[in-house]
């Protein structure tokens, strides 16, 4: 129950926090169970109508939700979920349609206008609140690109980037961690996002970066840093303004926290973000709760967006229901607004034509699909997007990171010893059971979490490839691979902790004060 | 199409502005037509099911809406409305339930939890967007009090008020124009709103006033001044802080206007409000668009309220639908927030226990029912309320004031000559057709708009009573009554115009700057 709508929910796969995402998680579970239950599909339900199944299914969905909310015993929930699955299969058989909560069966299924955020693809489920898969390798990103309608970052784009900026592409780009982007102009398929941005850079036209985080607790883990590490690199390469949104209002709306706690988490998280090395003269970090009351532009843009998005639309995109509070329903406009330069008149001098580039984990894409849809209708340019993959939990890409389980993740506050113990004890291994077997057959790097982490954090491409080959051949043992990861992470985290110690309240205040940055507009 | 959700929609009876209220208006019209159409009720529809009627009825409602939106010829609309009515009657006969848009027929009608704002009572319809009646005397306020669950302001309360404050009660109280109030403590029925406020006053405990206006155009008419005239009097009597909200964001959301226009109307309207004589040291006027970006407390309270109100609730209270934009859906929290003193930290020094008293037209009550429901759940005192009646259009209490028809109302910019002409030509008269008849039978003051206006604006109780008697007896002719009204209004409006001329941009800026007022908290 802890990662509802993480801005950078990179890693907390499968968390079932909100009523909606818990419902979605149930559906996924149902999918997974489906394979084992095909035998019971056929008993005597053929006489019932689609509507009857729909109603039964809705009722059972509510029942499962109630059980989960009431923290019922696991077995009880499992039984209820199995029944739900059975009903779902029956429903599909009878109606020829997939069950969708809130959508009774129709004769001609015509409600496919907006891609629902919670669309499932095989065993994967990705929306701003939930990331779940049953595959040890993690989410199938190729499929996700097709479903989300974004574009893969091809080698050619990365090469152009290196050519234009004169710098080597970040390892996140080289290794497909930032793997997808979105077209700026829908009608012109050749003008891809990053290409457009590179055009702008070549033509000395300015743009700015926007990313963010949902401050759900004081503790941040390694995965939370991915978008910030990458954004820092983009800022260094392009030398452009950066705004970082901390959605403390959203955390208050989604979780059982006080406004004061959420705001405190925002300030604490800001320290970890600042410790990534951002330049105070080029970076503005803001808490929604504070900045809404300090800006002449932010609320105006929020209202403009809110006028142009209906409940039907957010229902389709985010799966909101009639029982959701009106704060959740209107929140997407608040994450959308910083995509428009007029939300920051102090930085952009009131100009409304500055293009925005948003690096974020791909589960945040629904917010920005909505934003891109609204932009031309309120006279603003569409933001460009760079999507990252998810950071896996120590236990494997198909399990969830949980703040209540400190062993599911490496936190930025962990000691060198804790890091060592966590990796040695908990990092899911693709190695074989015995040394003999491993030497003979080799390990599976694709499912090995230690190796996955190295792709995120080991800078040296050749060394990484050597490790992959040695591990796959069996020359490198699991313990040796883990040792390599430990030696990579320990100094990284120690250095982060040292940099964070340098971040005073005064520094935070500087970053979070609305002001002109070192750019002239 | 011009008074959607007027903060002080005192007079614009029956305007059909939003999709919702236009639908409601259709229902009312249907009610009115009902009496004349009872003959056609019975032909051959008995074989159809309630659901079939429901669907037909919904379709016909849409058809009527489309005709109205498309400005179809009146006869065509009338025919469509008649059919709608017929279906409605059939539906009620078959299902035993009243038709409600969006609510299919149920076996046990159980959705009566929250009083819908658009509840109809006989021929009256009152919600924040629509005020409609078929009665020439206007809305039946006794019934409205019962339906809204508020309390009538009794003579005893007015006497206590005069005793406690040492001042004569305002004519709006003496004459039942402010006629209703709301209990502060539901469980303790003896502690009525105004009584509680008077207790506070006697105990030197402070409270503050909150009222507002939706700035839908530059032009304000006499009716718009009612809450401000009364609020000014309350401020003078009690010597307490006053905050005035201009909901320019709401006008932008509901109407086809730009953000800039709405904000400009807010500033223009502020001039007319200031011209009522408010003390700049005791009064804070704010535009939502501006103040949201200037206050550390306002947005925080908005989010708190938004967390505690669901879409189901606002659907029940305001009749929102899934096609409404998310801005409308979340707006009620913005009108609610100024009821809590922490929205104005600069005035109340961060104190959260200052009680709020809201004088407003009774059509705004749904907002504050919601506010009172939320208040204890977020740790704030419930606001107290004083409700006013509606100000009638010149053509009579059952017609609508329309900004596109300058003759439906007396504007604050009208010249003495225009006032004279409007009253003489357009004020609905309760007099008889000929002088002879009038002398013989007398006039009907209850439906006479000139007399109604005098109850609002003639200070002298004895003179008003004399006029009523003379008019009813026939001693006073319609022309003489109108002359009396003209002579009352002309100097009032002239003086208002002179005071407004004195209001400089600098004065407006002073009133609209967040600042400490002359009160110590």
UniProtKB/TrEMBL annotation, chain A:
It comes from the Eukaryota. It holds the Pfam family WHEP-TRS. Keywords: Aminoacyl-tRNA synthetase, ATP-binding, Ligase, Nucleotide-binding, Phosphoprotein, Protein biosynthesis. It is an enzyme of class 6 (ligase). Its EC number is 6.1.1.2. Residues 100-119 are annotated as: Disordered. CDD domains: TrpRS_core (cd00806), WEPRS_RNA (cd00936). Residues 49-105 form the WHEP-TRS domain. GO terms for molecular function: ligase activity. InterPro entries: aa-tRNA-synth_I_CS (IPR001412), aa-tRNA-synth_Ic (IPR002305), Rossmann-like_a/b/a_fold (IPR014729), Trp-tRNA-ligase (IPR002306), uS15_NS1_RNA-bd_sf (IPR009068), WHEP-TRS_dom (IPR000738). Belongs to the class-I aminoacyl-tRNA synthetase family. This is Tryptophan--tRNA ligase, cytoplasmic. It comes from Huso huso (Beluga).
From TrEMBL, chain B:
It holds the Pfam family WHEP-TRS. Keywords: Aminoacyl-tRNA synthetase, ATP-binding, Ligase, Nucleotide-binding, Phosphoprotein, Protein biosynthesis. Gene3D superfamilies: HUPs (3.40.50.620), S15/NS1, RNA-binding (1.10.287.10), Tyrosyl-Transfer RNA Synthetase (1.10.240.10). Residues 49-105 form the WHEP-TRS domain. It is an enzyme of class 6 (ligase). InterPro entries: aa-tRNA-synth_I_CS, aa-tRNA-synth_Ic, Rossmann-like_a/b/a_fold, Trp-tRNA-ligase, uS15_NS1_RNA-bd_sf, WHEP-TRS_dom. GO terms for molecular function: ligase activity. Its EC number is 6.1.1.2. SUPFAM superfamilies: Nucleotidylyl transferase, S15/NS1 RNA-binding domain. CDD domains: TrpRS_core, WEPRS_RNA. Residues 100-119 are annotated as: Disordered. It comes from the Eukaryota. Belongs to the class-I aminoacyl-tRNA synthetase family. This is Tryptophan--tRNA ligase, cytoplasmic. It comes from Huso huso (Beluga).
């Amino acid at each position: 129950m802890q990662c509802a709508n993480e801005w950078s929910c990179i890693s907390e796969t499968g968390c079932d926090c909100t009523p909606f995402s818990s419902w979605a998680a149930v559906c996924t579970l149902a999918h997974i169970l489906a394979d084992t239950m095909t035998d019971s599909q056929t008993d005597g339900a053929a006489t019932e109508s689609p509507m009857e199944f729909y109603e039964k299914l809705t009722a059972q969905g509510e029942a499962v939700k109630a059980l989960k909310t009431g923290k019922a015993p696991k077995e009880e929930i499992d039984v209820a979920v199995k029944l739900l699955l059975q009903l779902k299969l029956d429903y599909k058989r009878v109606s020829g349609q997939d069950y969708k909560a809130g959508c009774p069966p129709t004769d001609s299924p015509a409600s496919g206008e907006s891609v629902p955020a919670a669309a499932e693809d095989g065993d994967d489920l990705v929306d701003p609140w939930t990331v779940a898969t049953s595959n040890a390798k993690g989410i199938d990103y190729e499929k996700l690109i097709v479903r989300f309608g974004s574009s893969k970052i091809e080698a050619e784009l990365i090469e152009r980037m290196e050519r234009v900026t004169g710098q080597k592409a970040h390892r996140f780009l080289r290794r497909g961690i930032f793997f997808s982007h979105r077209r700026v102009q829908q009608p012109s398929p050749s003008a891809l996002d990053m290409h457009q941005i590179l055009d702008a850079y070549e033509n000395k036209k300015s743009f700015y970066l926007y990313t963010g985080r949902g401050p759900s607790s004081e503790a941040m883990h390694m995965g939370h840093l991915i978008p910030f590490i990458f954004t820092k690199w983009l800022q260094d390469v392009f030398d452009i303004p950066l705004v970082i949104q901390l959605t403390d209002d959203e955390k208050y709306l989604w979780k059982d926290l006080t406004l004061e706690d959420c705001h405190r988490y925002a300030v604490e998280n800001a320290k970890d973000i600042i410790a990534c090395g951002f330049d105070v003269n080029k970076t503005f970090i803001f808490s929604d709760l504070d900045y809404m009351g300090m800006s002449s532009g932010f609320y105006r843009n929020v209202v403009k967006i809110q006028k142009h998005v209906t409940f039907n639309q957010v229902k389709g995109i985010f799966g909101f229901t009639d029982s959701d509070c009106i704060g959740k329903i209107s929140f997407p406009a608040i994450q959308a607004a910083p995509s428009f330069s007029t939300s920051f008149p102090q930085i952009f001098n009131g100009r409304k034509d500055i293009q925005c580039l948003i690096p974020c984990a791909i589960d945040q894409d629904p917010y920005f699909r909505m934003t891109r849809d609204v932009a031309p209708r309120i006279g603003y340019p569409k933001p460009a997007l760079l999507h990252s993959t998810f950071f896996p939990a120590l236990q494997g890409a198909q399990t969830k990171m949980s703040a209540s389980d400190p062993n599911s993740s490496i936190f930025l506050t962990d000691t060198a010893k804790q890091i060592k113990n966590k990796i040695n004890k908990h990092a899911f291994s693709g190695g074989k059971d015995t040394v003999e077997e491993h030497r003979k057959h080799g390990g599976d790097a694709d499912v090995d979490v230690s190796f996955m982490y190295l792709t995120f954090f080991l800078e040296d491409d050749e060394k990484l490839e050597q490790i992959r080959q040695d591990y796959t051949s069996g020359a490198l043992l699991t313990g040796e691979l883990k040792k390599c990861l430990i030696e990579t992470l320990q100094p990284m985290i120690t250095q982060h902790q040292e940099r964070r110690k340098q971040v005073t309240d005064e520094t935070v205040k500087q970053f979070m004060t609305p002001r002109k940055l070192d750019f002239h507009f």
